[in-house]
Amino acid sequence: MRASLLLVGWLIGCGGSSSSDAPPNTTDATTDATDDGLTDTGGIVLDGEPDTGGKLGCSADLRSLVDATGKVVTTCPPDQGCSNGACVPACAAASDSRGNVGCDFRMATPLAYGTTLPPCFAVVLANTWPRPAKVTVERGGATYDVTKFGRIPINGKPAAEWAPIPEGGIPVDQVGVLFLSSDPASVFPENGVPMKCPVTPAIDASTMLEGSGKGVAFHVTSDTPVSAYDILPYGGARSHFPSAELLFPTTAWGENYVAIATPPGTHVPAGPLWAQVLATSADTEIKVLPSVDLPMSSVFSAAPKGATATFVLQAGEYLQWQLATGSNDVSGSIVLANKPVAVMTGNRFFRLQPSPAPGGESTHQQILPVRALSSEYVAAPYETRRKDLAPEEIPYRLVGAVDGTTLTFDPPIASAPTKLDRGEVADFKTKDAFRVTSQDPSHPFAAAQLMPTANVEGGTRPGATAPGTSPGVQQLLGDEEFVVMMPAGQFLSKYVFFTDPAYPTTNLAVTRVKTSSGFADVKLGCLGNLTGWKPVGTSGKYEVTTVDLVRAGVSVGSCTNGRHVAESAGPFGIVVWGLDTYSSYGYPAGGNAAALSTVTVEPKPK
Hints:
By secondary structure, the chain is mainly β. Helix content is 2%, strand content 38%.
């Protein structure tokens, strides 16, 4: 994926999830699911009347206690937040919400394009709490001074001129960029653009683990809830292979996963493709049922396809597999651990086009645990790149979690699957927005949206400004991308995000959900209320729209690349897209990871 955005989401409500999500005793896949597939969102609901049982709920930003009508009853002190209708310590409130805001994050350095020395790895934090967020960074027992390598972005100035993060922490309503590591000699070989960090990073050397093995992750903690994502490499569109992922705090991790991953694509050979499993607690036992052969390393044995393998990790360690040339991806692999883990998947070189041509991407994504998957997704097409402005035919990928999952598409899609079994992967294409549902919350599944090559039919519309990687390469807009889709049940009511000024074209794909009062306006600070809404299918539950913020470096309205806030009285989802010549990123602006079902998928061969 081509991503160098700074984007972070905010929570929809206080969240009523249990503080423990230990899997129930099962033999294959439990079908004991929540009654409606939704978690308590503090009085904000997808449709129908709020049901708080006479109890107080939480405001969308976790800052206040609200009654059933959403009226603020009291606002918590700056060092506290709302959980289950009461003011509690701020980090505890964020933890209970099971959202993408938290105080404890771990991140493994992703793998990147193989012809370049390990480039700049950066983590972005956003603080919308009403007090500064004091941040600590550790790795392998060493602690690093955030004021030395952390920066507060200043719109219109290069990163080398940004102010250091103050001793007191990231200021209120500000974004902090942590430059964590890079090989000081990293250069993109096709155009000579430096890929090292613009300031001296915490570790002035590579932290990328090559091949398969065990690695050591970074540990970022804060005394105040923040949102986070990472970028590799930091440096904008001219790196031509950047990738980003929304990072969930350790409090939102799960024990059970069915992997969804970037496909091999059309380049021969593909990838290499890879996967990581990261632990946050000592003596974490991980059982894996792989859908492909996982290679051995110097510290662990191979895990053959279709046979359960067991691994043990300590806090901050991660397993990494770089798959053999010609291998398929890890989609459909099952992970079950005795303690929470994170799972990341990626492709070091992903090309998706009908015939050989320039282009290709690196990708990496942190995926949702099984309990946060849904039986319902809404697909919002991104803004077309075609010169004739006709809708693009967009690829999608679905992965089943439970045998006998039947799928219904609204509107119908001829090429789409009608059923999925456990671990089954289905790929299809459509030009339309759509809603896909299974028969009930006991049959969740994973979903992803892809962007194919810049070499679209008839050429691309204006928007790219960067020169090609070599003479004669056209300025074609965007390139391959892989985005994990957030279920509508995980949407938020407020997002804070920061788009990278290196990309001359930035736009949003937005989905809003009907509430008991109808469709609520979605307001973006630089544009006001969004317009152009179109219904999704015939259910009347969802509408989608797209909007440009910047096109070919020219502002739309008062928008520029930088920090943005979008909010609504109802839940909505955002995917932010940034594009340039053979370069694009796409990423959900945030979301909850609350339990939508109690299904557990056991890593046992069929």
